[in-house]
Amino acid sequence: MPTEGAKKRKSRKEFFTRQKANEGSLLYLPDPQTGKPSEEWLRIRGVDSDDFRKTELAYKRRLLDVFKIKDKEEQEARFQEEKLGLLATLVMGWSWDDPCTTDVVLAMFHEAPYIVDLVNDAAEDRARFTVSVSASSSDTQSVGSGSIESSPVEGTPDEKTSSK
Q1: Over the chain, what is the mean pLDDT?
Q2: Per the domain annotation, does 103 fall within a domain?
Q3: How many structural domains are present in the chain?
Q4: Which helix (H) or strand (E) holds 135?
Q5: Quick one: pLDDT at residue 10?
Q6: What is residue 133's three-state secondary structure?
Q7: Residue 106 CB neighbours (<10 A)
Q8: Angle, CA 141 vertex, CA 38 and CA 160 arms, to 5°
Q9: pLDDT digits (tens, 9 = 90+) for 8-35
Q10: Taking a C-beta distance cutoff of 8 angstroms, is the pair 152, 24 a contact?
Q11: CA torsion, points 68, 71, 76, 81, in degrees to nearest 10?
Q12: Contact criterion met (CB below 8 Å) for 105 and 127
């Protein structure tokens, strides 16, 4: 029996990440000139999303072929290409008007490598993709905050979000 002042145990559901990882989160990009938050965003999946986990498995299999390449420069180039391809699957949509396709995401990653790091770090941050169960209702869910809005929000510019 819990004593007064004892911590309340977490619900098992509070450890779940898959659903929120599949729904995605808004990652607001910093202005490249000032470093201050901009209005531009990417909707990213978490690393526990079904799409990412499936793609990651295929990526690991392809790496076996990459390691067989004798030329070290070619091997490094191919490794980077495979890694960016994997990370591109994390991007579900964005605030720009043009379609969010894998090829366009890869081009953005090549021209703005800092965005790759932002996407990777945010997608690996499982706290961004967990639910917090309210004490009043086990069905009520809220999500951690930060530079990423962790759940689709009514009224956000999601109508610009395109699937790959």
Answers
A1: 82
A2: yes
A3: 1
A4: none
A5: 85
A6: strand
A7: 16
A8: 35
A9: 888 888 899 999 999 999 999 999 999 9
A10: yes
A11: -70
A12: no
